[in-house]
Amino acid sequence: MRVDVITIFPDYLEPLRLSLLGKARDRGMLRVHGHDLRDWTTDRHRTVDDTPYGGGPGMVMRPEPWDAALRAVAGSDGPAPRPRVIVPTPAGRPFTQAYAAELAAEPWLVFCCGRYEGIDGRVVEAWADDEISIGDYVLSGGEVATLVMLEAITRLLPGAVGNAESISDDSFAHGLLEGPVYTRPPEWDGRRVPDVLLSGDHGAIARFRRDQALRRTARRRPELLAALDLDDRDQRVVAE
Ligand code: ADE
């Protein structure tokens, strides 16, 4: 997968060299190019923003540098493959595990990181395929949201995570929150690991884990359960 990120703070992309993302890049599964939006300004002060039409607080990013950057990075003419252009914004569609899986299947993504009050609506309308929010809170810009999305997407690229099962067991993979996990020692600070996990009975362990996931989801995210087709056994566990 190829990823381009346009931002006025390319240094924000340094964490993409670390850990799972860094390894995916080293292995050639992920190619990331950062671009400084100010490279497409034409004035001496390299201005990217201006006051909002209609009044109000803050500044808005001007359309011209964005259009020039997107023409250069994403290409505007010819039959060549076009990337999926994404604008992170708190006003976007919610980012979910399913959305991450959809984006992981794309060959080429371009993230446009806005700052201030956002990017001029006309250039967003002209270029963006998706406007995406990572949650109901406001960040200072799209850079951290882009890092979040890229980590979720990269984990889903074939072969990026060592053990494919660890992806299919993740919270949300079955629409449920994952229950607690344990490792050695079997007793720590007077607290024992649940006996069933030491039993070697794989059927009992799978049932135990599902019950834990159901109970945790019922307590913390009841709205997720409503979207699932629970059988009678699951219903009993949830009702306990
Ligand atoms: N930019 C600022 N806040 C954001 C959010 N919650 N999601 C995506 N992009 C953002």
Automatic annotation (TrEMBL):
* Role noted for this protein: Specifically methylates guanosine-37 in various tRNAs.
- Please give an example of a GO cellular component term from this record: cytosol
Residues holding S-adenosyl-L-methionine? G114, I134, G135, D136, Y137, V138, L139
SUPFAM superfamilies associated with the record: alpha/beta knot
Which sequence ranges form a coiled-coil region, renumbered to this chain?
none
* tRNA methyltransferase TRMD/TRM10-type domain residues: 1-225
Q: Indicate the family of this protein.
A: Belongs to the RNA methyltransferase TrmD family.
Q: Where in the cell is it found?
A: Cytoplasm
**One MF term in GO for this entry?**
tRNA (guanine(37)-N1)-methyltransferase activity
Instruction: From the Swiss-Prot or TrEMBL record, give the protein name.
Output: tRNA (guanine-N(1)-)-methyltransferase
Q: What is known about its subunit structure? A: Homodimer.
Say which species the protein is native to: Frankia nepalensis
Encoding gene (name): trmD
Q: Which reaction does it catalyse?
A: guanosine(37) in tRNA + S-adenosyl-L-methionine = N(1)-methylguanosine(37) in tRNA + S-adenosyl-L-homocysteine + H(+)
Q: What EC number(s) does the entry state?
A: 2.1.1.228
Q: Which UniProt keywords apply?
A: Cytoplasm, Methyltransferase, S-adenosyl-L-methionine, Transferase, tRNA processing
Superkingdom of source: Bacteria
One GO process term, biological-process aspect: tRNA N1-guanine methylation
Q: Which CDD domains match?
A: TrmD-like
Q: Give the top-level enzyme category.
A: transferase
In terms of Gene3D superfamilies, this protein maps to: 3.40.1280.10, tRNA(m1g37)methyltransferase, domain 2
